[in-house]
Amino acid sequence: MAQVDIDYLKRAKKRRDYSGGAISIILGLFGIFSLWPLLYMFMTAFKPLEELMLYPPKFFVMNPTLKNFQDMVTVTANTTVPFTRYLFNTVLITVVYLFVMILVATMACYPLSKHNFPGRNFLFSTITIAMMFVTAATSVPSYLIINGLGLPNTYFAYIIPGLANTTGVFLLKQFLDGVPNEIFEAGKIDGASEWQLYTKIAIPLLKNAQATIIILSFGGIWGESGVAGSYIYDEQLRTLGWFMGTIGGGLARTGATTAAGLIMSLPTIIMFVVQQTKVMDTMAHSGIK
């Protein structure tokens, strides 16, 4: 019997499990495929005009040049409003929006997760249903609210509509549901107030989830351009995304347009690459597959 077991173990050692390697190769190929558009955008930004006009287009740049970026600087230098003004508006709106959005989302998710009040399930169901509505479906109500509050042609017109970020509330609430209630009960026993439970326990525990929401929201507010046509009439209040969208126009500005597209995309890409582990951790704890 012992001899049989030894022979079986020897045969088992000779077998090799290739499933792990095969899965890694497949996932690697999918990863390269998903990076293809980003790599193409990067290559296109450095193509000279004659390569941009090639048909069929070439994926890799043959004669890289910085002229597209020089053309972009030339275009921005000839505007009535300085380029730095558009950049300042965008940075200010992005920072204020992300801060207020995180504040609103965390203050909403805490009672939804850790307090059993009447109508809690109905309220959370409403928030979940609201996630199905696209931005275009809420554009008219948003305009009526902004106009009714007297906020057109102000920075608040960029910030207020985005605060109804139900996705952020959903993710934060699901993440906080995974935190044992005993932690908050222990805080209450030690005499902590609700505000202290929120600021000293809930906020630190939601650090990864907050980073995820910031990453998911950053791209939308950084490249914001659509709202400008509805709420903003003063050129001094326009954003960088709106201005970059106006660079295109004619064959001569094709290169400048590709450079502008790369400039607008890089901050979002860099932020995601740096914080991707927090995104995966949040999605896993939130029950999203």
- Structural class of the helices, strands and pairings? mainly alpha
Helix percentage range: over 70%
Percent strand? under 5%
Strand and helix order:
HHHHHHHHHHHHHHH
How many strands, what sense, and barrel or not for the largest sheet?
none
Radius of gyration: 26 Å
Mean pLDDT: 79
Shape by Cα distribution: globular
Residue stretches low in confidence (pLDDT < 50, at least 5 long) are: none
Calculate the terminal CA-CA distance, rounded to whole Å.
47 Å
Description:
The protein has 289 residues and is an all-alpha fold. Helix content is 70%, strand content 0%. Helix 4 crosses helix 15, helix 6 packs across helix 9 and helix 12 runs antiparallel to helix 15. It is globular.
SSE arrangement:
Blueprint: H1 2-14, H2 19-45, H3 49-52, H4 67-77, H5 83-114, H6 120-130, H7 139-148, H8 156-159, H9 166-177, H10 181-189, H11 194-205, H12 207-222, H13 228-231, H14 240-245, H15 254-285
What are the defining features of this structure?
289 residues, mainly alpha
